[in-house]
From TrEMBL, chain A:
One of its GO terms (molecular function) is phosphate transmembrane transporter activity. It is found in: Cell membrane. Belongs to the binding-protein-dependent transport system permease family. CysTW subfamily. It comes from Secundilactobacillus mixtipabuli. The keyword Cell membrane applies. The gene is pstA_1. Keywords: Cell membrane, Membrane, Transmembrane, Transmembrane helix, Transport. Residues 62-280 form the ABC transmembrane type-1 domain. InterPro entries: MetI-like, MetI-like_sf, Phosphate_PstA. The chain crosses the membrane at residues 12-37, 66-87, 99-123, 129-149, 181-202, 258-280. This is Phosphate transport system permease protein PstA. PANTHER family: ABC TRANSPORTER PERMEASE PROTEIN YQGI-RELATED, PHOSPHATE TRANSPORT SYSTEM PERMEASE PROTEIN PSTA-RELATED. GO terms for biological process: phosphate ion transmembrane transport.
Automatic annotation (TrEMBL), chain B:
The gene is pstB_1. One of its GO terms (molecular function) is ATP binding. Keywords: ATP-binding, Cell membrane, Membrane, Nucleotide-binding, Phosphate transport, Translocase, Transport. It comes from the Bacteria. Residues 20-261 form the ABC transporter domain. The lineage of its organism: Bacteria, Bacillati, Bacillota, Bacilli, Lactobacillales. It comes from Secundilactobacillus mixtipabuli. PROSITE patterns: ABC_TRANSPORTER_1 (PS00211), ABC_TRANSPORTER_2 (PS50893). Gene3D superfamilies: P-loop containing nucleotide triphosphate hydrolases (3.40.50.300). One of its GO terms (cellular component) is membrane. CDD domains: ABC_PstB_phosphate_transporter (cd03260). This is Phosphate ABC transporter ATP-binding protein. GO terms for biological process: phosphate ion transmembrane transport. InterPro entries: AAA+_ATPase, ABC_transporter-like_ATP-bd, ABC_transporter-like_CS, P-loop_NTPase, PstB-like.
Length: 295, 266
């Protein structure tokens, strides 16, 4: 065989493999969206779920998922940012940082159901927090942390060393250089990392069944006092999320329209995650263009 | 490569007022027992351009970076750096202050991902200058001194990364002189620039000697002979010869210098 032929065969083989990956993705997305989208309506999105009769919606579940996401990010982002800055800017290359990195790797590979049960025993039972958004957010932080730390560290690493030298040479302190020069330059990457990890959090179910719970009490969206039991902002109330709802409807749902509720909820879940993904790309590109003057 | 006698040196002390000098400066990288820079004792005259020349790995950049303590985090530096009567290589000296007096411009233009004016004001604000009038004065003066003002005066809020390489490098010079330093260290500032930008940069540097003392590392020997008054030749971590630029290029005392400037080297 001539080099030309081998190259052509290899290229075709690689193209074929890529095609398979794309087809699997398109088939999955298409199937979920086409079978679910007809069941999505304004009524479906804005009415509470129903346990026994048909016609229930996903209003509270959708809100719970978003609220849980915000709380999770509020807890995990500062922790992740601090650790990433430490790993990328301060820590040298020694056994201690090696240990931290290994710990982060292990954390990211924990099975979610194990984290869920751990959260159940520790937060729900031992700490008496009960099934609540707060317990769920802490459990989700466990997943989110490694993803965030790694993506933020990567973004910081991608800022060239010459930028650090420029800051230091102007008489700036290390911290001032990091805060004023390195972090802004890494911002597009950091933002993209946050949004992509948000997609993962948004779709998580197993860890939430035992922490945020499976019940969706009636919420009062007019009550802005987070300490009231029925307020939608109360972090101590149990909260069934969209992903948990899909699981529950499919396993123990007794409503006559369980199949269509599950299909519709799945479509909404997928669409929201797709919005996160495309949004991440758009915002990252926009920020990058803004900082580099369109070049 | 021919083995030259590294102990045979010819180093003068310029008769002019001295802005900065080093005594027996040695730089050790990592845990190396062998210094990367050995016993460098040089005196730099005020308001002149001094060029540091030598092959790659001769230690000239290492030496330059030691002068404003940029090597602090990566190397151990022994010896004295005398500036205004103090040894600024002492651990008691405030390095942030040192770097405000001794500015630096790097090989690759490294403007911040900020607007042109923010590139200049960022470090000024950090140094405690908050008066808006003062800040905009400094932006204008430093850009004029760096010969960039006419090209960017209408786009001060545009991103610095949208400038050409030559403009970016002059912005980096403006950023450094906005801090009102005494001394400017330049580490091969023209190596990433095209010939036209290089010429422009050299004219700018000549102009800057009215107010600043300049020490420049360069690979380009024509550049060294065009712009500098004194030249030091570095070889394998040793300074072998230091004299007036004309002397170095026409009648050097040391064989290695002669071979290097005539291109018979290595």
């Amino acid at each position: 065989m001539t080099p030309n032929q081998t190259d052509r065969i290899a290229t075709q083989l690689i193209n074929f493999l890529v095609l398979i990956v794309v087809l699997i993705l398109l088939f999955l997305l298409g199937d979920i969206i086409f079978s679910g989208f007809p069941h999505v309506s304004w009524h479906f999105l804005t009415s509470p779920s129903s346990s026994f009769s048909a016609g229930g919606g996903i209003r509270d579940q959708l809100f719970n998922s978003l609220y849980l996401l915000v709380l999770t990010l509020l807890i995990s982002f500062p922790l992740a940012l601090g650790s990433a800055i430490y790993l990328s800017e301060y820590a040298g290359n020694n056994w201690r940082t090696g240990l931290i990195r290994t710990a982060i790797e292990v954390l990211s590979s924990l099975p979610s159901v194990v984290v869920g049960l751990f959260g159940y025993l520790l937060f729900v039972i031992s700490f008496h927090i009960g099934f609540s958004i707060l317990s769920g957010a802490i459990a989700l932080t466990f997943f989110n942390l490694p993803l965030l730390v790694r993506s933020i560290e990567g973004s910081l690493h991608a800022v060239p060393d010459s930028q650090r030298e420029a800051g230091i040479a102007l008489g700036l302190s290390n911290w001032r250089t990091i805060r004023g020069i390195i972090l802004p330059a890494a911002l597009p990457g950091i933002l993209t990392g946050i949004i992509l990890s948000a997609g993962r959090v948004f779709g998580e179910a197993a860890a939430l069944i035992y922490t945020a719970g499976q019940s969706a009490p009636i919420l009062n969206y007019a009550d802005w006092n987070p300490t009231d039991g029925s307020s939608f902002l109360n972090p101590m109330r149990p909260a069934e999320t969209l992903a948990v709802h899909i699981w529950k409807v499919n396993t123990e749902g007794v409503t006559p329209d369980a199949v269509s509720v599950s299909a519709g909820a799945s479509a909404v879940l997928i669409i929201v995650i797709l919005i996160f993904n495309f949004g991440a790309r758009a915002i990252g590109n926009h920020l990058y263009k803004k900082m580099t003057g369109g070049k | 490569m021919e083995a030259y006698d590294l102990n045979q040196t010819h180093i003068i002390i310029p008769p002019e007022e001295i802005a900065l000098s080093t005594k027996q400066l040695q730089v050790y990288y990592g845990h190396n027992q062998q210094p990367s820079m050995t016993n460098a004792s040089l005196s730099f005259p005020r308001f002149q351009i001094t060029a540091l020349i030598g092959a790659s790995g001769s230690g000239k950049s290492t030496y330059l970076r030691a002068l404003n303590r940029m090597n602090d985090r990566i190397a151990r530096v022994d010896g004295e750096i005398r500036y205004r009567g103090t040894n600024i290589n002492s651990p008691k000296v405030n390095v942030y202050e040192v770097r405000k007096h001794i500015g630096m411009v790097f090989q690759k233009p490294n403007p911040f991902a900020k607007s042109i004016s923010e590139n200049i004001t960022f470090a000024l604000k950090a140094a405690g200058i908050t008066n808006r009038q003062e800040l905009s004065n400094r932006v204008e003066t430093s850009l004029k001194e760096a010969a960039l003002w006419d090209e960017v005066k209408d786009s001060l809020n545009k991103s610095a990364l949208s400038l050409s390489g030559g403009q970016q490098q002059r912005l980096c010079i403006a950023r450094a002189i906005a801090m009102k330093p005494d001394i400017l260290l330049l580490d091969e500032p023209a190596s990433a620039l095209d010939p036209i930008s290089t010429t422009k940069l050299e004219v700018t540097l000549k102009e800057l000697t009215k107010k600043y003392t300049i020490i420049i590392v360069t690979h380009n020997m024509e550049q060294a002979s065009r712009i500098s008054t004194y030249t030091a030749f570095f070889h394998l971590g040793h300074v072998l010869e230091y004299d007036q630029t004309e002397k170095i290029f026409q009648t050097p005392e040391i064989q290695a210098t002669h071979d290097y400037v005539t291109g018979n080297f290595g």
